[in-house]
């Protein structure tokens, strides 16, 4: 079969090579699937560079998230049968940027019937991260105000849609007019282009100085530090990641004085520590998808070998 492989670490454009490889064999708790659509995520880029906490052995095929049709199951697999359409996480180093790949049964779900292949392929990482961050960690309530950084990105765009589905007023912060258009199309109530507008001043104006109840921050660094200026009384800041490249430090005396919470979110840990919650999350996302809320943003690539 054909697969995009990384033989040496570096920028994806430089190190990805289309190769002919053997079909992978599923081990215990794994499935082999025909890839219908594979998602493009920032961790895939970081893995190609060798900058991610997960470092598959070389050579490897990236593509951590996908939608596929089951063609073979290993032992101890009960979540799906041959022929089922599923979505979830690939079992690296046999990722989704290939005609066929392996998936871990523990992170595999039935693809919602209401979603096409491309939409189902992006339902796991970004949307489950958003659901756990907003609901499990931050306890977002209808009528509250949610500030989403990097709102046109993968996890940010999911948080915008899930925030609206939860009945929140959503303020989206983006970098550039094209991304502002994306955030508007996603349903954000207010969109701030940080390249032309100081988001701190803008948020204070939009909230009459009160601030926001929940801040969803995948960026880190200075973005986090400045966000503390606009968190409301009893507000919650959800630390999702550090896409800006700088890991921030939290001034806990400031959290004490302003009476807000700083909440860490490691979505992948739920798969190990609370798998039933992950199943419940997928069921809720499937219900929302059937209602058209959310309509997942399709940052996917077609199957390898397709026209």
UniProtKB/TrEMBL annotation:
<feature type="domain" description="Enoyl reductase (ER)">
    <location>
        <begin position="11"/>
        <end position="304"/>
    </location>
</feature>
<protein>
    <submittedName>
        <fullName>Oxidoreductase</fullName>
    </submittedName>
</protein>
<dbReference type="InterPro" id="IPR002364">
    <property type="entry name" value="Quin_OxRdtase/zeta-crystal_CS"/>
</dbReference>
<dbReference type="InterPro" id="IPR051397">
    <property type="entry name" value="Zn-ADH-like_protein"/>
</dbReference>
<dbReference type="Pfam" id="PF00107">
    <property type="entry name" value="ADH_zinc_N"/>
</dbReference>
<dbReference type="Pfam" id="PF08240">
    <property type="entry name" value="ADH_N"/>
</dbReference>
<dbReference type="InterPro" id="IPR036291">
    <property type="entry name" value="NAD(P)-bd_dom_sf"/>
</dbReference>
<dbReference type="InterPro" id="IPR013154">
    <property type="entry name" value="ADH-like_N"/>
</dbReference>
<dbReference type="InterPro" id="IPR011032">
    <property type="entry name" value="GroES-like_sf"/>
</dbReference>
<dbReference type="InterPro" id="IPR020843">
    <property type="entry name" value="ER"/>
</dbReference>
<dbReference type="InterPro" id="IPR013149">
    <property type="entry name" value="ADH-like_C"/>
</dbReference>
